[in-house]
# Entry
Amino acid sequence: MAASVSGKVVLITGAARGIGAETARVLARRGAKLALVGLEPERLEALAAELGPGHAWFEADVTDQASIDAAVAGTVERLSGIDVVVANAGVANNGTVAINPPDALVRTIDVNLSGVVRTVSAALPHVTERKGYVLVVASLASFTVLPGMAAYCASKAGAEAFANVLRLEVAHKGVKVGSAHPSWIDTDLVRDVEDDLKTFREIRSKLPGPLGSTTSVQECAEAVADGIAKRKRRIYVPRSLAVVQALRSLIVSPISDVGIKLQARKAVPALEAEVAALGRSFGSATVAAGGDEHAGQAVHQG
# Structure
């Protein structure tokens, strides 16, 4: 019998936009009941209405434990439990360590890594009760490097490591854990970076094969939904990234560094000048989450 999500309760963070929203649509069409969690209540409410009856939405910031705890409790109350938790909320700051305010770098790590930890920790007792599935949405950046992405790569590598260890901790309880590794997906997050930073767009255009290609959000969501149904250990989007992952030691080797450094010699100063002129640390679709936006206190979930 084919794997199915019909009747399963799936909680997704970063559900207002992008991968989170589109994955929710695919899962709902396959019969799952969705708990949509994010920072944009109007978008979440509209998506829940679009999906039809039997779904719920909760405004929550994954960097605030009380907030995510409340979303989990609300899901259990309204949908009677949680079978799957998808820790998807993520952000990407603009530019290098030298040009970005420390708060922007830390905010990226806080959302992408600490947010995963907080989300999974809150939902895990309920997922364990149903011998369910945990999916951490990591990235191609978990095992590759690129100038201008230090905090993002660090956060996604950490998210992958968290999933790898959690898998071992809960296996005897019947819980499965997977990590998803999308490449460049056609979402607001990716479009914002490319619209804002010509140099970054040029750097990416020179990357070979799946390292530089863009996948539609619909194709990504179908792959993620398939992985959830099959409780997969790893989900690669596109699938060819599995080869890249297998070569990760070479990607971060001194041999690889030589080529990247040659390109970075000109590209990094140009990138830093563009970020300085831009005057902000995150994309224009970013949702403010308090503090000074120019110092990087902003979040875009999805």
In short: The mean pLDDT is 89. The radius of gyration is 19 Å. The CA atoms of residues 193 and 283 lie 6 Å apart.
